[in-house]
């Protein structure tokens, strides 16, 4: 962190520039800088007299203080900056990744297909406001990245209250302590040419994808799947690549191949399918292909989201670069595989890779509220709603042997304001995938439309907090202030009305509490139709996987290695999958996993004697010789509860 004398010197230099008649740069452009005089303490820390100081042209018009600094130029940050500016606040929009183009993941990561949040009954898009404003400026559900970048730039240029500082090499929050309270009061920025400056702000919005600002400010967080016991697991990274030669005739061929196939689909701009790529055998162990998600460009090219990279640490630049190089090495082989198997794609050639990789998961902030998987399962509204989501809980693979999972598809859930308010630190809001979401709901809430809605709310929240003279953490508990925020956002074009949805069939099922427990570990899949198979017959193999999948979470409380209860022989596994799960066998697997000693055929008695398996659970089993899937979940619930686990509760509070 830059020393205090340097912060003061930077502020003095910029103030001198203003006094000398410098012109501020708003959204419309940047003026040239003049020559200033400032003490040599700028260089040495010791006042030794005046020396000439040339303010870099990049800094001309950058003020020493703003109402809000938005750190991060991904779509979420742009929405935050626009919202704040339209509420009359002065805004500095900046980024610490050396970027020169607005749009981040959508423009530099080439992620040109949008995961839309639609309301199931009528198909309407849930995220109104600035997201919808931008969406109308691009081609559709897939878009040309140049169109997207131009749309973002036009929106920002239209706001005179926004100053943009790019490229910036690094940025750090400045945190001051007031008694027991830590507050972010500005940012220390280092430009591309090495110039360092301190910019003060009443508020900072962290819109970095990895939560770089809140982490540096001391806000607590979890990393990857740490919250479910998998500290080293996180979703795969994707390197998006471009295919040349996607003419209208080629696109017609793509649409013809994918027409009418289950799980496949096309529009005029998007295509998804080609699941044959799952059979591709990579040349490197940390690389894997999945089915193709294809988004058209306007120049007879298309961008493909399909190449998965594993063992990439998003916080380690060297690891990220190694992942990129592995992807670049693999892609010529992928294209050759494509050309040899699909006639309509045989003439396409590789046209390069995205400037930035698509990183799905890293830090998850601990905020005043942590969105949990039961919130989504029960389609819960929140009193402090600022955004809505409905995208399926899409858990991409965490390793080459993992196939990923679609947990289920919510109808509609609310993201609360409390989920963008950090614990322990004030003066800061956090939007985007690093906000306060558990790892499982993050599989849905990480989508860009949700993040842009939260960004718009964050920008307006700065105005409400300023008007009321309260901090963000105080605001997160103030229902009158939140109502004022919601009214302001509705006036901006968002739609944040409260709602109530009827209970879903699984919520009324007699084994629902067991489902909630299993789902909390990500160990069940309802797919896109939310069919959890609760009344189907259970088998010993799938039941045993519940213990194997939760063992990392329970640690020493579940000491036995899964090999003692999971069949290693494929023939035996096939036989067991076809066999019913009896109550005694369910107890045997549980007791073995827990390391409990028991007499032959005495596992059930051993669990009952220790108070692990409850009488009410046993009495709810209709046939002890053939448990249903839901009943097996109830047995697992009892075991997990005995080990101290409690499924998250959901409410509007």
From TrEMBL:
It comes from the Bacteria. Keywords: 4Fe-4S, Iron, Iron-sulfur, Metal-binding, Oxidoreductase, Signal. The keyword Zinc does not apply. Residues 1-25 form the signal peptide. GO terms for molecular function: 4 iron, 4 sulfur cluster binding; metal ion binding; oxidoreductase activity. The keyword Ribosomal protein does not apply. InterPro entries: FAD/NAD-bd_sf, HdrA-like. PANTHER family: COB--COM HETERODISULFIDE REDUCTASE IRON-SULFUR SUBUNIT A (PTHR43498:SF1), FERREDOXIN:COB-COM HETERODISULFIDE REDUCTASE SUBUNIT A (PTHR43498). This is FAD-dependent oxidoreductase. It comes from Paenibacillus antri.
């Amino acid at each position: 962190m830059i020393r205090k004398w340097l912060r003061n010197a930077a502020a003095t230099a910029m103030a001198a520039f203003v006094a000398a008649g410098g012109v501020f740069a708003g959204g419309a452009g940047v003026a040239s800088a003049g020559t200033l005089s400032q003490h040599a303490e700028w260089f040495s820390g010791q006042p030794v007299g005046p020396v000439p100081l040339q303010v870099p042209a990049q800094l001309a018009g950058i003020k020493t203080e703003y109402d809000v600094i938005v750190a991060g130029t991904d779509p979420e940050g742009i929405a935050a900056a626009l919202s704040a500016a339209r509420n009359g606040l002065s805004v500095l929009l900046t980024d610490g990744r050396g970027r020169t183009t607005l749009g981040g993941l959508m423009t530099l990561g080439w992620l040109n297909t949008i995961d839309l949040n639609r309301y199931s009954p009528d198909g309407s898009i849930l995220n109104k406001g600035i997201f919808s404003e931008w969406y109308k400026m691009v081609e559709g559900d897939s878009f040309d990245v140049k169109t997207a970048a131009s749309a973002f730039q036009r929106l920002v240029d239209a706001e005179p209250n926004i100053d943009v500082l790019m490229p910036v090499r690094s940025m750090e929050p400045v945190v001051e302590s007031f008694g027991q309270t830590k507050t972010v009061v500005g940012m220390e920025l280092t430009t591309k040419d090495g110039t360092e400056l301190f910019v003060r702000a009443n508020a900072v919005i962290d819109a970095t994808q990895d939560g770089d600002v809140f982490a540096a400010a001391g806000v607590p967080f979890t990393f990857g799947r740490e919250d479910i016991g998998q500290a080293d697991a996180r979703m795969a990274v994707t390197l998006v690549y471009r295919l040349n030669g996607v003419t209208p005739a080629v696109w017609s061929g793509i649409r013809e191949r994918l027409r009418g196939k289950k799980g496949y689909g096309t529009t005029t701009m998007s295509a998804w399918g080609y699941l044959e790529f799952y059979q591709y055998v990579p040349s490197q162990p940390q690389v894997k292909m999945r089915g193709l998600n294809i988004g058209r460009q306007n120049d007879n090219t298309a961008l493909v989201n399909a190449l998965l990279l594993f063992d990439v640490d998003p916080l380690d630049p060297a690891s990220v670069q190694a992942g990129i190089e592995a992807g670049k090495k693999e892609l010529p082989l992928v294209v050759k595989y494509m050309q040899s198997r699909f006639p309509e794609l045989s003439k396409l050639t590789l046209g390069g890779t995205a400037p930035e990789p698509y990183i799905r998961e890293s830090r998850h902030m601990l905020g005043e509220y942590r969105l949990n998987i039961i919130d989504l399962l029960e389609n819960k509204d929140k009193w402090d709603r600022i955004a809505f989501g409905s995208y399926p809980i899409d858990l991409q693979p965490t390793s080459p042997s993992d196939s990923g999972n679609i947990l289920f598809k919510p109808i509609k859930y609310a993201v609360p304001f409390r989920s963008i308010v950090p614990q322990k630190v004030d003066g800061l809001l956090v939007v985007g995938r690093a906000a306060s979401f558990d790892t499982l709901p993050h599989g849905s809430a990480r989508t860009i439309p949700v993040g842009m809605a939260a960004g718009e709310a964050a920008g307006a929240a700065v105005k409400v907090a300023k008007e009321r003279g309260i901090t963000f953490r105080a605001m997160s508990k103030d229902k009158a202030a939140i109502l004022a925020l919601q009214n302001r956002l509705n006036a901006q074009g968002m739609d944040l009305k409260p709602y109530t949805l009827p209970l879903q069939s699984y919520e009324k099922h007699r084994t629902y509490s067991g489902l909630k427990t299993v789902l909390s570990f990500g160990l069940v899949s309802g797919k896109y139709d939310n069919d959890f198979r609760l009344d189907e017959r259970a088998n010993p193999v799938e039941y045993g996987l519940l213990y194997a999948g939760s063992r990392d979470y329970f640690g020493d409380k579940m000491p036995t290695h899964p090999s003692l209860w999971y069949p290693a022989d494929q023939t035996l596994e096939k036989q067991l999958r076809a066999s019913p799960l009896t109550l005694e066998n369910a107890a045997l697997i549980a007791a073995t996993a827990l390391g409990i000693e028991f007499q032959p055929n005495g596992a059930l008695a051993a669990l009952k004697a220790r108070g692990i398996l409850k009488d009410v659970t046993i009495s709810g089993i209709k046939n002890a010789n053939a448990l249903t899937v839901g009943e097996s979940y109830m047995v697992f619930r009892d075991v997990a509860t005995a080990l101290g686990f409690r499924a998250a509760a959901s409410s509007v509070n």
